[in-house]
Write a structure and sequence with these properties.
It contains 7 helices and 6 strands, in the order ααβααβαβββαβα.
Length: 217
């Protein structure tokens, strides 16, 4: 899930590779869309859990019934930004369909607000693999039309750190990758990393990008 409409199935195939996986790009679903809400109303919230759960169990359930012998241990669910929020919400909510049919979950610069403080407590996660990719550069967000943007990265870093500490304390199969020198995004070299992780391959080391010095006001 790319945090969008789910109409880019080619990206899913590029991430996972040409063999051994069924690649599906899923749209996001919300209970209500209201452009007057913060971030233009597009952000996934806890209120969206039930509609997400029902939509994905219906859509993916049809796929599972149509294609025999899909292996849960290799099945991977994840996304970038709002897609990571949706994935984390299903995990934190211990959605039965999600936890039954997927054993690998990845989150790209999102989802931490649902994984902390209780989202990693599900006993089902003891048999799962989890991957977090997080940027380390400023992420400017405006919470409403006409409001000035502010850098949410320091707050995100604190939540990501808490999630990382919790996952390690629980002894989960947990991998964290810091996307050095990157802003909020899912660049091609890190799409490769996700594919390598999902297939169980050795992951490349991606060099950091040089960061331009901050400009004094």
């Amino acid at each position: 899930m790319a945090g969008a409409k789910g109409d880019d199935a080619q990206r899913a195939r590029e991430i996972i590779g040409p063999r051994d996986f069924i690649a599906v790009s899923m749209p996001l679903f919300q209970r209500v869309f209201d452009s007057r809400e913060p971030l233009g109303g597009v952000a996934i919230t806890v209120d969206d859990f039930d509609v997400l759960r029902r939509a994905y169990s219906t859509m993916l359930g049809r796929l599972i019934r149509a294609v025999p012998r899909i292996v849960a241990d290799r099945s991977t669910l994840g996304g970038f930004s709002n897609g990571a929020h949706a994935t984390a919400l299903l995990v934190a909510g211990r959605d039965e369909f999600t936890m039954e049919h997927f054993r690998q979950f990845y989150f790209v610069d999102g989802g931490a607000q649902f994984l902390a403080p209780f989202g990693l407590g599900a006993p089902e996660l003891a048999k799962c693999r989890l991957l977090l990719l997080r940027a380390d550069q400023a992420h400017q967000v405006s919470h409403g039309r006409g409001l000035p943007p502010w850098n949410v990265r320091p707050a995100l870093d604190k939540i990501f750190d808490a999630v990382d500490d919790m996952a390690r304390a629980r002894g989960l199969d947990w991998t964290q990758v810091v996307m050095r020198g990157r802003r909020h995004g899912f660049e091609p070299e890190y799409q490769v990393i996700v594919g390598q992780w999902a297939r169980g391959d050795k992951m490349d080391e991606v060099p950091p990008k040089p960061v331009a010095p901050a400009v004094e006001p």
